[in-house]
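Task: fold both queries, return tokens.
Query 1:
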Amino acid sequence: MNNSAINEVTNFLAEDTHWKDLSRLNENWVDDPIFKNYHKLGNKQKGVLGEYFVENYIKSLKGSVVGKPTSTGHDRIIDGYKTEIKFSLANSTRGDININKFIINHVSIGKDWDRLIFCGINPLGCGADRVRMYYFNKEDFKNYMFRTKKPIFRHQQAGAKGGNDDYICVKFDEFTKLSFIKEIDLW
């Protein structure tokens, strides 16, 4: 190992403004009382946190009965439905939070679920609803994906050529307008 090169690069990067931009912490949510540390969590931990938030929200909102999953194909049993839960904070561009811009990630038709809940969180005091929560039935989603020429859910990773069943949606406004998407109040 060349210590001279390591020291040279370390000294350069310690002062480099581009490096500082690349490595700065996302502090867009630092003032949020419950999501200020979200960005520091690993992906698995973020999922668990989102599932716990939705579980408590739907219990409070609807008085729902929430149970543990019976398989890895869903996250909870809610009112008797095998429920997959997807969760996202409003995304950011540089230092700005993009209100109502969410990513619905890793939706799979092949998993063992009846309903999917998506929960998007906006920052406090942004002028938009804090919680944007919707659900849909698996059969409706399946029909949409197989019958729609250009669905807003797109293949991830290896894509259609790789035969994967892993979808992502970044068009939240269009998502909320799909005929089979329901506000959580209608659960």
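Query 1 returned. Query 2:
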Amino acid sequence: MSSTFHEWAPTAGRAEKNVSTFNTATISNQSGAMQELWTTFADLAKPLPDLICFSHLRWDFVFQRPQHLLSRFASQIRTFVIEEPIFDAPQSPGFMHLSSRGENLTIVVPHLPGGYSAAEHNTMQKQLVDQLLQEQSINHFVAWYYTPMALNFSSHLKPAVTVYDCMDELSAFAGAPPELLIREQELFTKADLVFTGGQSLYEAKRDKHPAVYAFPSSIERAHFAQAKTITQQPADQQDIPNPRMGFYGVIDERMDIELVGKVAELRPEWQLIMLGPVVKIDPATLPKPANIHYLGMKSYKELPAYLSGWDVALLPFAMNESTRFISPTKTPEYLSAGIPVVSAPIRDVVKPYGELGLVHIAATAEEFVKAIEQALKQQTDAKWQAEVDKFLSQLSWDKTWGYMTHLICNQLQSR
């Protein structure tokens, strides 16, 4: 039952098949014709399920995959996102802080007291989760996991369907709990569906569960295409001279900061714009020549305005365990803005973007410089832009969410 979303979507009466190759080019032909056959929440008997998400990411941090998907679920069903705890409660067991992000979307933050063991904190969170379900009358629900560690306080729940949306190989990240892989194996046992955030991650997980589906990074194309027509530059960018090379996202151990510094050194006339929070690394270690500009974290809404002033977009990732399985959402976002892209040889960027000639691939600072020089000539390349537009026309978060919904609803109907 393992499948890749971009290569194959089920049709009525057709048995599902194993797929191990990535072929995004078929999505428009297949899913476009098949979307009417996808099961939706409207096809389900009422009452509709709620959705409870256990996330290791803060909703108000960087806007990425969870926000794209869960906000769409909230357009149809009540959605609760339970974040990791804050340790500031005055007494045990602490409390849950609920805040609304729309009619059906509630962000839940556990506040626990400090000074207790991990086991005691898990017991408190279990109690608070049970209280949440009771107070919000959550009886019939889908459990959606981004972090297997949440099983430490939620394994007793009885969801109608359990989904593991494996968007990263969390065990490879700095500071990952030693028991994470044990909890992940437990989650594979409990899950009805496993989604992965990219093709390489799919290939790493497909033998661990009978229903693994690859859902690589998608886009809200119209949002980023605004960059093509915006003329007013953000105040903190407008006085930085061109040419500008830019990056946005979390600046952490996944970034090759030495490469960034070397590129700036090799081409002091180029300006490197770095947008995003610095996390899990010492800011003092960042290269700080005059032509690198750290402008801080920007909202999702602001990104097109910054992109509108860039000449080339960068993916200067380090090649290490933490980047082995990443599928950067910003790849199609950069391209949607009409900006040439230069990337490190990240597997899910090389295939398909590099192999199709949509993105330049470079491994060293010297290669980055040469690739950027080529990319600077690409801005007026109508053929390249047409090929990019054709490729991107196949992708959307609506399609990704729609097929995920189809799979979940099929599970619910089979109960």
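Both queries returned. Flag for query 2: Residues 1-31 have pLDDT under 50 and may be disordered.
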